[in-house]
Structures are given as C-alpha cells and as structure tokens.
Design brief:
Layout (H helix, E strand, L loop, with lengths): L12 H14 L4 H6 L3 H16 L3 H14 L3 H14 L3 H9 L8 H16 L5 H9 L4 H23 L8 H4 L2 H7 L8
Helix pairs in contact: 3-9, 4-5, 4-7, 4-9, 6-11, 7-8, 7-9
Length: 195
C-alpha cells in the first residue's frame, strides 16, 4: 500500500487523535493518514492550511479546481477522493464522468470551465501563467481574491498529491465500492487503487 511503512491502528497520543479525526471524516483510517502519522505535526499544519483555503471558497468550485489539478498531477488518490465529494454532493455519476473525461464538452458553466483550466495550468506549469490567463478569470466574474483562492487550491494539491505519490501511497480500497467502475477507471490516472 506504500513504499514506506504505514502506521497501523493502536497508536497513541497525537497519532491516535489524528486517526480518530480522519476516521470520523472518512469512515476509515485512510492510507494517507497512515503515511502522515509519521509526522502528525505536518498533517495538522496541512489540515489547517487546506481548511483555510477551502473555507474561503464555494465548496463545489474548490472540488472542481482540486480534481482538475489532481488529474494533471496524475494523482489517483486525490482525483478519486475529490471526485467522490463532487459525486456525493453535486453531480450524478454520469454528469461527473463527463466532467472528468472532457470538461470542455461537459455541461459546465463558462466560469467553472475557466476555473478548471486555470487549476490545470497551475498544476502543470504555473510559471507559464500570463496576465491574460488571470484576465480570463476576471472576465468570467472572479475577483482577485477568488482567483487567488483557485491558485491556492491547485498549488496546495501539488503538495499533498506529490507527497503521497512519492512514498507510493495507494488510494484506499474503499474507492472500489464507493465509486462507480467507470468513474474509478477515469480517475485512476496514476497509482492503482489498493486491493
């Protein structure tokens, strides 16, 4: 499930508290939590950063931006996790599959499509972003603060996704039953789902 040893249940102190919080939120102690259990202080800082970013954004926009960045990063784990939120809260599975496979042809608003494009560009090559790219977001009604929020969401995804992939953490086996097979296939762009 990873190239480094995963911390198993039975931990105490900060790790036990972290596991309890993750289990409450996700219904299980996830592989990502078992990786970060080696450094619970880093996970706590990540959770605070991610919470601050997400807390300033419309949740659907945050998830679209995150999935767009995760797919460019080839992070199966993050793609599956955030697509599941989109499926559970905002889209039926067929709609979400269209968004994942080809956002340009999906029934997205122009602003949603531009947010996804920008997030992809941040994840792929942020140094290539020009003022015109930011201006396109403004033309779709985003304020400078909202543009910064999209950039923060995509950039933060780079940290989390690359950390998990660098240590070989596989997406949790629960995605095999919690997401439709066609979504699993479309979202597994990197590491395979754990058995």
């Amino acid at each position: 499930m990873a190239f480094i040893q995963l911390i198993e249940d039975g931990a105490d102190g900060d790790v036990a508290a972290m596991f309890a919080k993750v289990e409450e939120q996700f219904g299980e102690v996830t592989n990502f939590a078992r990786v970060f259990a080696h450094r619970p202080d880093v996970f706590k800082a990540w959770a605070a950063l991610n919470g601050a970013i997400r807390g300033n954004m419309d949740r659907r926009r945050y998830e679209l931006a995150t999935v767009a960045a995760a797919r460019v990063l080839r992070s199966s784990y993050c793609s599956l996790a955030h697509a599941k939120v989109l499926r559970d809260r905002f889209y039926a599975a067929p709609e979400l599959l269209d968004i994942v496979i080809d956002p340009e042809r999906a029934e997205l608003s122009p602003v949603d499509l531009e947010v996804m494009r920008f997030s992809e560009q941040v994840a792929r090559d942020a140094a290539s972003i020009a003022e015109e790219d930011v201006d396109r977001l403004r033309e779709h009604g985003l304020t400078d603060l909202e543009i910064l929020d999209v950039a923060l969401a995509a950039a933060a995804r780079c940290f989390f996704a690359k950390t998990l992939d660098a240590v070989g953490a596989q997406p949790d086996a629960s995605y095999r039953t919690s997401l439709e097979p066609d979504l699993q296939e479309a979202l597994t762009t990197g590491r395979s789902i754990a058995d």
